[in-house]
Each structure stands twice: as C-alpha cells, then as structure tokens.
Amino acid sequence: MGAVTQILRWAAGAPGLPQDQDFDDRVLLDLIGQHALSGRLARRLPAGPAWLRDRLGGPAAAMHADTLALAETHIRAVGRIVAALGEQPPPVLIKGVATGLLTGEKHLLRCGDIDLVCADGGPLIETVTRLGYERTRAPFLHELGEFTREGVEIDVHAYVPVPGYGAVRDADLTPPEHATTWYQPRRAPSMHPIRHGRLMDGGTVAVGRVTVPDPCLLAIVLCAHAFLNFTNMWSLSHRAKPYVKLAELADLHALVQHQAFDTQRFLTLAEDLDVWDAARWAGWASTVLLGRNPLPVFAGTGPFPRCLWWDFWARLPVDEEALLLPDWFDLAAVAPLLGSRIELDTGRPAPPWTAEVRRDGDGVTVLISLPERTDAATERGRVDFGASGTEWVLAGEQLSAVGGHDSCELLSGRRVRLHYRVPGADGVVLIGVAEQDASGALRSAVLLPATWQPADPAGAR
Length: 461
Hints:
The chain is α+β, with helices and mostly antiparallel strands and 461 residues long. Helix content is 32%, strand content 27%. It contains 13 helices and 23 strands. The strands form six sheets. A seven-stranded mixed β-sheet has the order 7-13-22-21-16-17-18, with no helix packed on it.
C-alpha cells in the first residue's frame, strides 16, 4: 500500500495510523478533494501522528472551510428552488450534502453538484430556468439535464437507478481460445428505479427546506451509485476521477450508525429494489478499503464483472491501489484479456466497417469507414484510450460527439475521423461501432482493441 492511499483510507475511517511519510502533499490533497474527505481528514488529524498534522493540518482545515461554504450555497440554492416551486412536491436531494444534513455532522458534508430527484421534471426545470440556471447538459437516461448558475450545478433526475447484474453470467466472460472473434452472449443487466414517490413514501427527512432520504434509503442510493461507477468503466474512462469514492463508502458507515437506521427496513428495501449486487459489492469494497463491512448483508467475494460499453461485459482483475486513483484504466493491461475482437451476439451480423489508427505528428488520428448503406436509425461509435475517449452518434448526416477528442468530423464516403493528443510513441485503443433501431435498441455491435506505432498505421476490423 502506498503512502497516499494509506492516508486516504485512514482519513475515510480505516483503522491504524499512517506510517509512511514519503508522499507529495499536493498529490494527496488533490485526491482528498476527489474523494470528498476534507471534513473527515480535518476531524481525524488531531488523533493522528504529529508529522501528519504539521503537513496537512492547515490545508485540510482550509479545504473543509471551502466545503462548508459551498454546502451553505447548495442548501440555499435548493431552498430557493423549493420556495419557487410553491405547491409542487419538493424534490429529494440525494448524495452530496445529504448525509451531513441527515446526521447533523458538519464534517460529513461534501459537495459536488446538486442531485435532485423530482416528481415531475417539467415544473422543476421551468423553475430552475426561471431562477437563472442555464442548461449545460442534455437529457440522458435517468438524468433530465444539468443546469448551472454561477458555478452551482444542478442535476435533475427522473429517478435513482439501482443497477444489478441481472442476466450477466460470469461463465460468459472468458474469451474462447484461438478464436478470431469472441461472440459474447447478449446479457441484459437489471436496473430498478427509485422514483420520487418511493423516496417520499419511504420516510424522507426535511432539514429546513431541503428534503433528503431516510438513512436506509440513502444507504441504498449510495450503494447503487458507487456500484454503477465501479461497473460502468466507459463512463469513467474519459474523465479524471477515481471509480471508487471513499466518501461514499464512509457515508455508509455513518448511515448504519444513525439512530433511525432500521436493519429490517433496509433488508426489505434491498429485496424490493433488488439492490443485492450493489450492496454486496459495497460490503466488499468497504472491507477491502476501510477494514469492515458496515451493511447488514454478507460482503461479496467477486469476481465483479464490469461493463466495457453497451452490453459488453468483462471479468477484469482489480488492483486495490488503482481503485482509488484517477488514472486507473490501463488499456495495455485490459486489452490482452479481451481477445482480438468482440461481437455482441444479437442474431444480426455486424456491419462491415474498418478502422485505421495512426500516429499523426504529436497526436493520433482514428479513421472509421462505415458501410455505404445502412437501414439502422443511428450508428454509434466508441474510441477509448483509457484516460480519454469519445462516444459519437451518426443519425443520417448529422454527427455529434462527446469526449476528449480535439476534432471529430464526418468525411465523404461515410468516414468518421477523430484526432487526439495522446502522449507516448505507441499504445492501445478500444474502438467500437454499433447499429441501433428507432427505439435505441442495439441491432449489432463490435468492440476491439487496436494498436498504433509511431509511423506504422495499424488496420482494424
């Protein structure tokens, strides 16, 4: 265990005292921020070694003061929204400051964006727009949009998704030996929604004008969110953040100790919402990283499959250090475990497409050639370098893309060209193409690793 991750774990509540003093203060403090541990660290430092107090005492106190100020801003923002909604049902705040408000413990307050689950997206979106918030992200799945005003971001949710493995089978996740293509059975994961009505009927708690879930429901929300981040590798691979946030695991410990936490109620909710996969994973992660499983369920033992993208799943080894670092997705280590080509077995052959990856000056260019004709409503693509990547969508002649590319353009002959600034002389990239029908369902999909060299283009199919 490195010094940085040892101190991160200790700040989050792991037993023992840090011993290793060989770390960069700036690196550690940046990770303290990413794991939302400033309050916990400031609270625990007086019981820590003197050398750690001397090095981190001032910065930790300053970080926590900033967090408290931002928390007050968030609480006021939600209060204004609730007041402006009038007789409309108030939204329920999940994650963020919720645990700190529910427990009344200021050192548990943490702030990212403001996540609100609403009864009806229309009135809430109309209200935040009237209050001066501008839409900064379009609707996607359960998120009805992101709205920003003066640095405060609000995510409006139609529901809280509770993911599970569903039909995903560990036995399906080993590539066949000596086969050019791995035809992976299409297995649908489960996804149970927790809607506003369930949150309200379940016994929400009002702190001023802010409504938060009761300890049992909030623990389930945090298990579900943390598990989704762990399994959904693509959502994290193109942004610098750890895929296990220690504050979420530490919050579970605080919520289970809350006087209103009811073990039987938690188990009943876990059954109703099928949160077992998420809760067992959270129990495992808490045991591995913080030394103890706080939940009244048996901790899982793995393996824990992860979703590479779309409905592609893989069984990949877990490095405990990498769980906590933002640059965890190492494609050079992942690619050999995937085989040379994965095709989703949908019953429809994958479209004929080709890809070229080449070093282009100080960057990398990816050129994807699509079939001349398609009867699919949309075509989707993925380019993923691990630390950065792109997801693009082509509908007719309209190309849109999100991610870390420098440029993405549609050329003549139905070719999609993307350019990236990628350090290093060679490397591995995951490329995927899929076809969707008008409802958004996948008709076919292919995913494959490709490599490039400084001046030797690599072809891929």
